[in-house]
Design a protein that fits this description.
Blueprint (H helix, E strand, L loop, with lengths): L4 H12 L4 H12 L3 H10 L3 H10 E2 L8 E5 H12 L4 E3 L5 E3 L13 H14 L4 E7 L5 H15 L3 E6 L2 H6 L4 E3 L3 H5 L4 E2 L1 H4 L10 H4 L5
Helix pairs in contact: 1-2, 2-3, 5-6, 6-7
């Protein structure tokens, strides 16, 4: 069985030496013959020391939302919370953000936990007393319109001001929005000043979560 700590160490080394992420991941994944799922873990979990510190410096607590606008990366937050509710694998990345192993790739399906996850997210936001909250879902992913309708209904029930909508340029809009961004997406974090790891605020015990070294060996 391949000792998967080796590719993780190799990737960290290359990133610390200034290699571009895509190039470094490809080199390491090809050398060790990693599966697509394992490559996905490397992309989402492993960072150079500089990147990890930069991401940590942007992270804020939920109290930062009081009286301000919350911008929620819809699928990113929802899928992580759903994964937690379903007991699926979550891991603590090098940058301190909680991430899951799920990947939508343009597809999403409602499950028994979808409504529960949305209710938890909306309640957490409502309790934080933001000025307003805006959920942005990628329009290219299945059922985005239905999700927005459900989120808007739950927001109305909770008395949370704001809206939920789809966008064909979701990442661009999130990055260029004014407010505290809720996401664990690497690219978005790099371009935002303040980022809230919302699933972490929903009671996920991040200190007890496995790191990528622990989890990648479980992903075929």
């Amino acid at each position: 069985m391949l000792e998967l700590k080796d590719p993780i160490c190799d990737l960290r080394f290359l990133l610390n030496r200034g290699y571009k992420r895509t190039t470094a991941v490809r080199l390491v994944a090809n050398r060790y013959g990693l599966t697509l799922s394992q490559r996905n873990i490397l992309v989402r979990a492993v960072f150079s020391k500089r990147e990890a510190e930069e991401h940590k410096s942007r992270r804020v607590g939920i109290k930062a939302l009081k009286g301000r606008t919350a911008i929620i990366d819809g699928y990113n937050v929802l899928i992580t919370v759903e994964s937690a509710l379903k007991g699926k694998l979550l891991f603590l990345s090098d940058d301190g953000f909680i991430r899951d192993v799920a990947a939508t790739f343009g597809k999403y399906r409602f499950s028994r936990t979808t409504e529960q996850a949305i209710e938890m997210i909306v309640k957490a936001l409502s309790d934080a007393s933001p000025k307003e909250a805006h959920f942005i879902f990628d329009s290219q992913v299945s059922f985005s319109g239905e999700l927005c309708s459900l989120v808007r209904r739950k927001m109305s029930e909770a008395g949370l001001k704001g809206t939920a909508r789809t966008s064909d340029k979701a990442d661009f809009e999130i990055i260029n929005s004014e407010g505290v961004v809720c996401t664990s997406d690497n690219i978005i974090i790099q371009k935002c000043k303040e980022v809230l790891d919302l699933p972490r605020q929903l009671g996920v015990k991040y200190k007890s979560l496995p790191t990528c070294e622990d989890i990648i060996g479980l992903v075929a």
